[in-house]
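Worked Example 4.2. Consider the chain below.
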Amino acid sequence: QVQLVESGGGLVQAGGSLRLSCVASGRTFSSYAVGWFRQASGKEREFVAAISGGGGSTFYADSVKGRFTISRDHAKNTAYLQMNSLKPEDTAIYYCAASGDSLYTVFTSHYAYWGQGTQVTVSS
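Applying the procedure from the previous section yields the following structure tokens:
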């Protein structure tokens, strides 16, 4: 019942910034945890960041900690991923996902709803 639409990807130079957005349909979205994942060419999908249903707790992969910030705006049914100090190794397709409950984890299997993905390319 939840549909997610991502946007904000693009091409940036190393050291630059991007903000990814994930707009959800359905009022139940506000109670679900949200995760951001990415998949580079030839690689498996990996966890990036997650935020609890209430927005009070966050967790980040070590590779992005200190550079990326996950947030959400319940009034707009939108989750965000602010990406600063981008590196070429951040290049990937980024996906947002929503769980079916308030619990957030690093496991893809926990998330019931997924966006279509948005491409992020960081040039050196």
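The mean pLDDT is 94. DSSP finds no helices and eleven strands in the chain. Compare this with Example 4.1 before moving on.
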